[in-house]
Amino acid sequence: MHPGTFGSYQQYPAQYDSYHSQQHYALPPALYYSIDVECVATGLDHNARAVAQISLVDQYERVSLNLYVKPDRPVVSYLTPLTGLSQELVESQGMSLADAVATLRQYLPASAILVGQNVGKDVEWLKLKEGADFKALVDLSGVYRVWNPRFKTWSVFSQDHLARVLLNWGPDAAGHDAVLDAVKSVRLFNLYSQLQASPEAWQSAQEALLAAEPTESFAKRNPTFEGVCMGNRKTCRCGAPFLG
Ligand SMILES: [Zn+2]
């Protein structure tokens, strides 16, 4: 592909404490944060979900919070390959959603700009309010959409595809994890800012995103998992509405 096109980002190790452990100077206060929520299934239809993990990571990839939440309804499936969560983890470390959101509010500055893939959905799960709990949202699926001249449509990519093509990020061993997903979001957002400074680099990034084999989502590979509908529009049989 385009070796070196995306600069030093590809050399960063896939660890979220990479360049802070030995910092000898004060960084300016963070302005951008990423929030990520992982949900488990509380029923068989694709809307029956409850929050089970919340992470908050700042623009320097510092992990501010990693909270587990014990749903107040019985869990039908932990969707482990997708969420990385297990019954043992959630039951031993989970707190109530109300306590988790209260803690989150203490750590999240009202001036924060939240970045993430479909971050509006995460904010909705947590009932956070723009203008009160945070200042604004930046949806990565929007900033990284690419005009496809062949099909004359906008192509929108999953976070896994963006991370695989632009960050050389391989599949995560334990599936998704709220902390790693938030780190990916921060890194993709920082890369986006950097790419905007160079029209050539931005052009190559867009071409690479279009040219790469699409990254198949979990829902595409698994129309259902442990009997739970994964909400793929083409294979859904549960009949629940698609809420957008
Ligand atoms: Zn369904």
What does this structure look like?
By secondary structure, this protein is of the alpha/beta class. It has a single domain, classed as Ribonuclease H-like superfamily/Ribonuclease H (Nucleotidyltransferase, domain 5). Helix content is 32%, strand content 18%. The protein has helices at 80-83, 87-93, 97-107, 119-126, 140-143, 159-167, 178-195, 199-211, 218-221; strands at 32-41, 49-58, 63-68, 113-116, 136-139, 146-148, 153-155, 224-225, 228-229. β1 and β2 form a beta hairpin. The two termini are 34 Å apart. Bound molecules: zinc ion. Zinc ion (ZN) binds next to loops. Keywords: Hydrolase, Nuclease. Pfam families: RNase_T (PF00929).
Write the layout of secondary structure elements.
Layout: E1 32-41, E2 49-58, E3 63-68, H1 80-83, H2 87-93, H3 97-107, E4 113-116, H4 119-126, E5 136-139, H5 140-143, E6 146-148, E7 153-155, H6 159-167, H7 178-195, H8 199-211, H9 218-221, E8 224-225, E9 228-229
Parallel strand pairs: 1-4, 4-5
Antiparallel strand pairs: 1-2, 2-3, 6-7, 8-9
The structure holds zinc ion (ZN).
Zinc ion binds next to loops.
